[in-house]
Amino acid sequence: MLKLIRWPVAIALVGIIALGLFLIRTLNNTPVPPAVPEYGGVYQEGLAGQVRYINPLLWQNDAEQDLVSLVFSGLTQIDGQGTVQPNLAQSWTISTD
Questions:
Q1: How far, in whole angstroms, is CA 6 from its chain's centroid?
Q2: 83: three-class secondary structure by DSSP
Q3: Dist. CA 66–CA 76, nearest whole Å
């Protein structure tokens, strides 16, 4: 009879120890260092939609617009404050006419 009780007690004891170790590990508040990307590699981006044209003059949906903005650069770009900054153009002038 004593031999039959040992196995359930041993299994319960192992389970309690495993649960305790799991709780100690999850409650440990050590900060995780941020992931630093390696140099090089592959850039992947998901698009919602079908791409037919990769021409900046012919884009028709958001997926094509996103792809065109990744592939082609404009003469100017808008910065975070809403002002026009040079992108491919070095300088420009605005005429009165």
A1: 51
A2: coil
A3: 17
